[in-house]
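User: I'm preparing a small set of examples for a lab meeting where we compare how different chains pack in three dimensions. I only have the primary sequence for this one, and I'd like the structure in token form so I can line it up with the others. Please keep the answer compact; I'll paste it straight into my notes.
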Amino acid sequence: MIEKTYRPSEVEARIYATWESAGAFRCGRPERAGARPYCIVIPPPNVTGTLHMGHALNNTLQDILVRFERMRGRDVLWQPGMDHAGIATQMVVERQLMERQEPDRRTLGRAEFIKRVWAWKEESGGAITRQLKRLGASCDWSRERFTMDEGLSRAVIKVFVELYKAGLIYKDKRLVNWDPKLRTAISDLEVQQVEVKGHLWYFKYPIEGLENTFITLATTRPETMLGDTAVAVHPEDERYRHLIGRHAVLPLVGRRIPIVADEYSDPEKGTGAVKVTPAHDFNDFEVGKRHALPLVSIFTADAILDLKNNAAFLHDVPASADLDETLALEGCDRFEARKVVVARMEAKGLIEKIEPHVHMVPHADRSAAVVEPFLTDQWFADAKTLAKPAIEAVRRGRTTFVPKNWEKTYFDWMENIQPWTISRQLWWGHQIPAWYAEDGKVFVAMNEAEAKAEAARHYGHDVPLRRDEDVLDTWFSSALWPFSTLGWPDQTPELKRFYPTDVLVTGFDIIFFWVARMMMMGIHFMKKDRPAESLSEWVPFRNVYIHALVRDERGAKMSKSKGNVIDPLHLIDDYGADALRFTLAAMAAQGRDIKLATSRVEGYRNFATKLWNAARFAEVNGCKADPSFDPLSVRETINRWIVHETANAAGVITVVIETYRFNDAASMAYAFVWNIYCDWYLELAKPVLLDPAGPGRDETRATVAWTRDQILKLLHPFMPFITEELWAVTESREALLTLTSWPNLSTAFEDPRSFSDAGAEAEIGWLIELIAAIRSIRAEMKISGEIPVVLIGAGEYTKKHARTWADFIRRLARVSEISFAETVPDGSVQFVARGELVALPLRGVIDLAAERARLEKEMAKVKGDIARVDAKLANADFLKRAPEEVVEGEREKREEAEARRVKIVEALARLARAS
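Assistant: Understood. Below is the structure token output for the 915-residue chain.
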């Protein structure tokens, strides 16, 4: 007996436990040994992470795909796991030590600190795994991996060693993005540009040998002037041509710096002259290389001034009182130094002017510290070389992006890719497998023993070695995820069976961080391991589905500071996992961000309730599955029609899931279940089910149950919990729904087992269209009482249908009588249903003139609304200044107003014909 009310909180945990105990999600099930494999690797969430709405969307879409393919009989592996999240995890544990007033990381030492991180991981890490289960994620949890586990660590070390030996990893002193708070290098992708209201200071540098002559240049970072080693001007800038080759004298320091000609200087920007600080600006670094300028780094790793013992800073600088005063800034924070430098320049009359200036300032995405370009020794990967085959793979269609437009983004980045800074000055992560001898020579090997053996061969005797303290960028290990999780570098059966994977589902924000790097690494190493195979077998995935962002209901990006974050776990608590999943799927249109409102989730909770009540209705009316039932043998028109509609729905849903049109699949499922099955079929079946002597009762009972079961299968990928529960409680079954076959109902005309039935569809389709149109006109014109219906020029076929379904038409459309005529009665509103003209005589029922006046008044209002929105959208200033979500809101208002205008036009046209 089905309970009266579906309570997700009482069902979901029990259902998930049933799936797990049955091993339902495990790949390699014996009965699927000969089945085609299907594999998705989960984008590994951070071990520190908790489920947010982006995770909920991403994993819902993946789960729809794997449940769909599992039901289609494929051997499915949804590979789960977590990322060690170097910076994030280290920050969490350091914060915990501080809160507990325990010794900090450096006091503990590296080994002890790493122990604390592992202890934290075992106690508190991985909460997101439990949360993914609450969402219904059907991963093969028996294969869960962690980027720091033994197998994946071995893969990371092997990749580093092989790339180093191939010359694709190297160490170099270069300018990098430096996070002075975490004291580590970070990649370009880990830098966020933040708009800041700052200033432009126009400094005057004296020209050596020309009394009272200065060259003026603008800067947003006055403190870095202490590291200036040149002034650059454009070679064709007439204002400065006479100064090229001369020297300026750096104020506050006394260093002679050359004035060089370089096209980097823009004559249209500022004064046309720029200060060159090669050790603290990326563009200046390139200028410095072109002109062989010295590199003067003036900061420590903490971004405080380092001057007194700085040989580069003091080189060729004469002693002076100015220099002594500058050296007194030793140990000063960079922003405090800025104030002092500006004050001293002002006191010397060397500031021409100061202007307010809004500009973008780089911040570290984890610590929020202002990033400092910093000259340091780092390890780099030759991304340009690795990118070439990854570009070719997408160009040749071996990997396809969905939507297709994301391929341009991929190409733009890959074709302009820079060396990848892969070293991080952290303790938590994969320690770089490089050992140094006392003379600085480096030995890269799989382990210390191999490094020592290599060093002994080099020197002719054993030497002490020191291991590099840095760790690898977290994204380095993530780049190996599609093959390392399958057992590489061992040639495992899983690697052979499931690589390449079928699809990667991810957000657009990590195309560069992760997708591109997986392409580079996957192709490089699989090509090496599978030389006889082709590019198609080397790529890590055949398709990349890029989903959009989940925003709040007004279209704003969710953030804690705005207070608009929606917690998916709260929605699951309030409405159930199925309602949240279906909402996300229904709104996941390709290329369009999701505007999530709680009301939408509540609406789909109501959809779940509708499904539950439909199953209860079937049970109450004795509708049970009949093992001998053949849906192709039904004789009753309504049953032939619902079999046809079920096959049509199954076919459409199958195709749109295959093409990643999740919203279309959800919309089709919703319309079929709510409108066709519940609102029409069950309504049409009621008289048959309630007639104990009716000839079609048994057939209709069996058809209701058969259709219900097809619905449970079609909805299962979207709403796994409620469908699995109904599958269990409606019938006595041995198999779990999640392992049951997907509906395969042919609608091909030439197929002898085709479920298509054009005759039944035409008859019931006409009936539904007729009733729906009458209901719509009644609602539009606010008609409350019964009204007559006249079928104009109806043939015998239509007359027969009208007489057959007369009782339904009267009851469902609130019709007083149905008649036939050759001409339209005066004062009738007309419409067409399936090519047949229908008239509703309304003279005397409503005041046609008053109704026309009402509609014309409403039309004037709608046109005014459209004009107001058009004026806003035509205003360039509005489009520039208004937040993205506000502009999008106005566009939606216009769409709604336009839809209303079209309806009013149709209603007025009907009234015109009635006059």
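A couple of notes for your slides: The two ends are 57 Å apart (CA to CA). The CA atoms of residues 117 and 537 lie 38 Å apart.

User: Perfect, thanks.
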